[in-house]
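Protein Entry — a single chain follows
Fields — amino acid sequence, C-alpha cells
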Amino acid sequence: MKGKQWPKEDTEKLVELVDAKKPLAVIVSQFPGRSEGAIKQKIRRLGLEVVVSAQGIGTTTSELKIPKELPSVEEALKILAAALKKAAQEGLDKVEVQRLNVVATLARTYKELFADYVHYREIEAKLVELEVKYAKLTKA
C-alpha cells in the first residue's frame, strides 16, 4: 500500500486508537498491509505523537500540554519566521515540508485568535468599568 491515500474511515480509526492510547503494536495490527513506518508517519502527519515507554514498547498519545500563559503574537511570529527560514532550505523531504506548513498555518491561526482574545479582554475591561460607574450612579 506504499504511497496510497488513507481512506477517511482508516484515518478516523487511527485517531480513535491513538486517543485510546493503544500500544503501537496493536495499532499496526489493525491496518494489515501498512507498515509500522507508514503508520508512524501518518500519526506524525496528523499532529499526534508516538511515545516510547521505558520498557521500549511503543505507545501513542494525542494529549496536549496546555500552557499556563498564552504566548505573545511576537513569540508566534518568531515560530513562523523559524518555519519560513527552514522551509527555504533545499532538500527538505515531503513530510518536513508538510510539518512546516502545519506550523505556519497554526501560527497564522494563533495570531488571529490572539488578536480576538485581546479585543474581547478590552471589551470586558470596559464593561466592568461601566458597571462600576453605573453602580455609583444608581447609589447617587
